[in-house]
Amino acid sequence: MNKTWDIEQIKEIIPHRYPFLLVDKLTELVPGEKATGIKNVTGNEHYLQGHFPDRPLMPGVLQIEAMAQVGACALMSLPENQGKLAVFGGVDKVKFKRQVVPGDTLQITVELTKTKGSIGKGEGSIYVGDELAVKGELTFALVEK
Question: Hey, what domains does the chain have and what are their CATH numbers?
Answer without folding.
Answer: 7-143 (3.10.129.10)
